[in-house]
Amino acid sequence: MLAPPPPLAQHRPASPTALIARRLPLAGKVVGVDPGHNGRNWSDPSYINRQIWNGRELENCNTTGTETDGGYTEALFNWNVGTDLAADLRAEGARVVLTRHNNDGVGPCVNTRAQILNSAHVDVAVAIHADGGPPSGRGFTVLEPVADGINNHVITPSYLFAATLRDDFRSDTGMPVSSYDGVDGLQPRDDLAGENLTKVPYALIECGNMRNATDAALLVTASFQKRAALAIAQAITTFLARRG
Ligand SMILES: [Zn+2]
Fold it and tell me: Which residues sit with Cβ closer than 5 angstroms to ligand 1, an ion?
């Protein structure tokens, strides 16, 4: 004979366990988002050409970034993906630290961006770029740090994050890994302030090649930009869940 059905539980207060299970996946996490360059960097060469120490050598404070043959700027692409990503991360419960707050300004310098992310003690940080590669080359690359003393403690988690980011971006956006840079979408770099100065798990993604006509046709669309942001958000969520 059948046991009587259990009493209905809809009106019981949720147990602490149930409340924890319903927490947003990024609740309590802090995520750094660095949209590369800035929309008016071209207007102040004396500022962006000043030399800063990037942990290994001198480097320009910032650059204008690249653009498509049609004149769509990398700075705008980075800003759109960065703000879409920030919204996606906040919806998952994260606090987001952005390195710039509009696309109408100059800078900040690349070393200042690293300082912003380090001093906020973010749990993970991503820099968003698009490349100005050879016109015949397609695809995206994730640029990883190389141990230099300053970043030694975050090399292992940065490589884990970079691999997760590569996997999710490839599967969720339709953009192939680069045909001209890195190996299977990953490229260590020791000449960039973001990589050299980071004290938090960090990777930089070149989301595609703005100088390639096929990539450019994707990169300029809002639908691809939103897909890119969601893929990056997914990688951040997966990476932070694995770290607990
Ligand atoms: Zn760039």
Answer: 36, 65, 129
